[in-house]
Amino acid sequence: MKRLLVLFISLVFLASCQPSIKSSIAVTVDDALQEDLKDGRLLLIFSTNHEAEPRFGINDRVETNQVFGMDFENYQGGEIIKFDTESFGYPIESLNDIPEGEYTVQAFIQKHETFERADGHTVKLPMDQGEGRQWARAPKNIYSMPKKITWNKESNLEITVDQLIPAVTEPADTEYIKHIKIKSEKLSEFWGRDMYLGAHVLLPEGFEENPNQYYPLMVFHGHFPSDFGGFRTVPPDPDLNENEYNARFGIYGYEKMQQQEAYDFYQQWISPDFQRFIVIEIQHANPYYDDSYAVNSANLGPYGDAITFELIPYIEEQFRGIGEGWSRFLYGGSTGGWEALAVQVKYPDQYNGCFAGCPDPIDFRAYTLVNIYEDENAYYQEGHFRKTPRPGHRNYLGQVDAMLEDMNHRELALGGKKSRSGDQFDIWQAVFSPVGEDGYPRPIWDRYSGEIDKEVAAYWKENYDLRHIMERDWEMLGPKLEGKVHIYCGDMDNYYLNNAVYLTEEFLEKTENPYYAGEVAYGDRAEHCWNGDPDLPNYITRLRYNTMYLDKIQKRFEASAPSDFDLKNWTLIKN
Q1: What is the pLDDT of residues 311-352, one digit of tens each?
Q2: Which keywords accompany this UniProt record (predicted)?
């Protein structure tokens, strides 16, 4: 005991002897960029890569840049912002622990806007500017040019923010692809300002020539689309470099493969024997993320109702959709996979089937590797004498390259404690959580320590745990979901999403009166985002969402479409 006490005193003494940081960091905003700057978050980013901009190199991998973040409010023109040297950082938490040496440094300001919501809360959040809520690329955000420095604990940095990210260029309509944007009355009322929903619409061959034909609607859910993807009316660019390596998939020439797949889809689309239908990709970025998860939320507002009862009827009216629940289908992967299943469950009469590939957690007993109902801490499994950190990301061999704590600390450094990072755990929290006393999402766990809030977990369970909701309400939901639920996931999903699918399948297979009569399938050693084809690799099937479920949709039509629906070319004639 005496030896342990001596060791503890020694550690305290060593910590007190460690030199504290004496640096000062002053950030000046160029006069031309001060006019609409009031509130925001200032990021200070360090990089050892002197060729690339530091703002683009913050990630969950080993080779990440270093970032520190601090909020500021009520900026006054001409002020110099003194960076708080006690600010939290990722992956190194303290500026005091940055090794001395040469770095490229960049300052970045993400602007916050004030929202006076209908629930009585006033919040300050970074609004989407048409880019899909990507802070490093968001128009109106401002930043400094990269600056090479020699860093030590007594450095005095002066940085000038003098660069403005320009506005996004909207895509132009084409013969087949149209772009729409509508004001949502439901969302505008909630947010206290005009809020909009958009969509990219792929029209069927012969749309203009056949004005009496009406079409089914396929809703392709997923992350924010800048334009309709995977559709190309000309062959691949012959000048593409086929030897360019794609690190994500470990193959060469992937850009050409993508263009070839897009052109092949176009060839199918215009062929005389191909089914006729409308496909939409929705733009529903918001102050928290690049999309809303397509459900109603206490923090985001009624996005589910706005999409289902405002946007989709508008599209069907404009482009001759059939406009009935039996004629609408949902599919997507990852975020889009969760949305496909959630929308089908939340609006069972409005859609006729979902195809959910690699969905985000659909059972919160496996919220990645955390059971939010039973575990006390998200970041560690804890015993009496040791604790083991929980992995956050792996490859198909199970090799781990990021811990759950690391991933959450990155978001904490980027966005602070109010779910403003625009990243994955923050949007899950924003969608699923109740509103906190301060008007921001109430945390499911302490973002620094990982301690889980069981009251919040109980709220999540009753409102967004899709397996629990189906099981709880099967007597009512079962007849409405029979034959509509299809889920696909790789058994080596990088984010451990397959664990929630296992638990959901266990429930679905036990259903009675009725049996769910759908499908759950797994890809052997398949990573994120496997979506149902056992014979092709992910890097191909992820490009075929708009065609890979057509046979299954045909069976749904055979079981549920009215007699005047043409089962061959999928059209309904109206005079």
Answers
A1: 999 999 999 999 999 999 999 999 999 999 999 999 999 999
A2: Signal
Q: In what order do the strands lie in the sheet with 565-566?
A: 213-214, 571-573, 565-566
How much of the chain, in percent, has pLDDT values that exceed 70? 96
Reduced to 3 states, what is the DSSP secondary structure of residue 140?
Answer: coil
Query: Whole-number mean pLDDT of the chain?
Result: 94
Residue 15's pLDDT band (cuts 50, 70, 90):
very low
Cα separation, 57 vs 384, whole angstroms: 39
pLDDT of residue 21: 64
Q: How many CB atoms lie within 10 A of CB 481?
A: 25
Of the pLDDT bands very low, low, confident and very high (cuts 50, 70, 90), residue 19 is low
Say if residue 86's pLDDT is above 80.
Answer: yes
Q: Residue 77 has which token pair?
A: 């023109």
Whether the pLDDT of residue 367 is over 50: the answer is yes
Q: ∠ CA 477-483-486 to the nearest 5 degrees? A: 100
Q: How far apart are CA 40 and CA 265, in angstroms?
A: 43
Whether residue 357 contacts residue 334, with contact meaning beta carbons closer than 8 Å, is answered with yes
What span, in angstroms and rounded, lies between the C-alpha atoms of 46 and 65? 6
Query: Does a cis peptide bond (omega within 30 degrees of 0) precede residue 19?
Result: no
What contacts 5, CB < 8 A, 6 or more positions away? none
pTM beyond 0.85: yes
Instruction: State how far the Cα of 298 lies from the Cα of 280, in Å rounded to an integer.
Output: 26
> Other CB atoms closer than 10 Å to residue 491's CB: what's the count?
16
Distances (CA, A) of 445 to 125, 207, 425: 21, 51, 10
Check residue 17 and give its pLDDT: 46
The model's pLDDT over 482-496, given as tens digits with 9 standing for 90+, comes to: 999 999 999 999 999
3-state secondary structure of 354: strand
Structure confidence by residue, pLDDT tens digits, 113-133: 999 999 999 999 999 999 999
Looking up tokens 């990301």 gives 393
Question: Measured between alpha carbons, how far is 360 from 497 in angstroms, rounded to an integer?
Answer: 6
Q: Phi then psi for 131, rounded to 5 degrees?
A: -100, -10
Handedness of CA 411, 415, 421, 425 (dihedral sign): positive
Spatial separation of the C-alpha atoms in residues 410 and 248, rounded to whole Å: 21
Both tokens of residue 188? 């505008």
Domain positions in the chain: 19-164, 177-363+467-483+538-573, 365-462
DSSP character string of 510-530: T--SS----EEEEETT--TT-
Give the C-alpha distances (Å, rounded to integers) separating 61 from 208, 393, 425: 49, 9, 17
Between β-strands 177-183 and 278-283, what pairing exists: parallel, antiparallel or unpaired?
unpaired
Query: How open is the CA angle 258-547-555, to the nearest 5 degrees?
Result: 165
Token pair listed for 550: 């057509």
